[in-house]
Amino acid sequence: MQDINTSQVKEIPINDLVERARIAQAKYESFTQQQVDKIVRDIGKFVYDNAEALAKMAVEETEMGSYEDKILKNKGKARVIWNNLKDKKSRGVIGEDNETNLVFVAKPMGVVAAVTPVTNPIVTPMCNGMFALKTGNAVIFASHPKAQKCAEYLTSEFMKIVKSHDGPDDLIQVVTNGTVEKTQQLMQSADVVVATGGGAMVKSAYSSGKPSFGVGAGNVPVIIDRNINLKEAVEKIVDGASFDHGIICSHEQFVLAPEENFDQTIELFTNTGKVWFTNDKLQIQNLRDVVFHDGHLNKDVVGKSASDVGKMAGIEIPESARLILLPADGSGTEDVLAKEKLCPVIAIVPYSTFENAVAMAKANLLVEGAGHSAALHSNNDENIQMAGLELPISRLVVNQPSSTTAGGSLTNGFAPTTTLGCGSWGGNSISENLDYKHLMNVSRIGKVIADKEVPSDDEIWA
User: Fold this and answer.
1) Which of 4, 307, 402, 455 has the fewest C-beta atoms lying within 10 Å of its C-beta?
2) How confident is the model at residue 200 (pLDDT cuts 50, 70, 90)?
3) What is the signed CA dihedral for 346, 349, 350, 356, rounded to 10 degrees?
């Protein structure tokens, strides 16, 4: 992989970027499904084939996350997103409904402004770029300043792919020397906005005057039900919560374990060899103070290793530990550890009844993370349904590592994505995973339904 000298990248005014994108999109709109799919497939394959180098670039530039896990993330997201997209119709006539006699025609939205976060500087531009191009749009990336190099490199390489398939110049562009003001101007000038980032940026997207798709804060509670394989559940939670140093918004944050199995659950966590646990109240408080400053997440711990977080708290935690487990004083407002921690630190509390567990999970979500996700390890369908009904969430992840499957996997039905909508709870326009379908307009051709029996007024009001 060649390096890219960002000082050599020419800065282009936002208005010019958008105008160039409109010209490119007008040319690209005539591309067939087959032509579009070849480009989209090769973008995903580029990330898959260069997963190691891209992971290295991301860790070096952002100083966040785990190199080994980012390799897995690059490969995994590229694989699952293309697998989901490759057989989907997104150009021209995409379907018919014989019962309603409707014909559905897909049309592009135009220019997509894709605001991408520092926490996922490779897979988020890849994902949103694939969605935008799949549906006939042009896309302009606006990255976090600490991920500018990654965004510019990906844009350059993605455009080489576009050109190799005779696509137009400027179909994929990037804002250089990014600022909040430039990003706001882009969002106001594009046709649709996908904002994956902090709350302020998402709010700005929804205030841009353009159709927007944003995300909400994560803070995933995970309930361990009774009568399950406890060891298996713990191992999945460890895999999920420790992945990429806990930087993923859908990672498990707060474990709720049956009170009679509480000590055994903690022992199973430590027996994995990946978890550091303490009951020492001073150490717990020191870690609280490091992770949260005055009740707010400390940005310096985001995406750092368990050992590095420990050093900040004056605690020696072995390099072999991938996760810090702390007993919390309670849920909701009872302990700041009930809030989102974008680092490999999770809390654990015991519960009495399953209803009690759901209530505590709900309390956490109402403090932070409403609309995002919850996780549950259970074989009890009634309890699974209870959690799904009671919790203010857009997705309940059952018997899976939440961080690596809430955004879609090869073994569940969530749409593969890097942008997880949180509905009205999280101030978002969608309560599902962002998918390619959200970036296309659909025209409906309606014909008379032959032999349709028209009900009488009496039948209508019966």
Assistant:
1) 455
2) confident
3) -110
Crossing angle for the helix pair 33-49 and 123-134, nearest 10 degrees?
Answer: 170
> CATH 3.40.605.10 region(s) of the chain?
6-215+431-445
Task: Give residue-wise pLDDT tens across range 159-178.
Answer: 999 999 999 999 999 999 98
What are the start-end ranges of the H helices in 294-436?
A: 306-312, 354-367, 381-390, 402-405
CATH of domain 6-215+431-445: 3.40.605.10
Homologous superfamily (CATH) of 220-406 is Aldehyde Dehydrogenase; Chain A, domain 2 (3.40.309.10)
List 127, 150, 249, 343, catalytic entry:
249
Give the tens place of pLDDT for each residue, 313-328: 999 999 999 999 999 9
Q: Is 249 a catalytic residue?
A: yes
H, E, C per residue of 346-382:
EEEEEECCHHHHHHHHHHHHHHCCCEEEEEEECCCHH
pTM for this prediction: 0.94
Tokens in use for 5?
Answer: 């000298």
| pLDDT value for 9 | 61
SS3 state of residue 211: coil
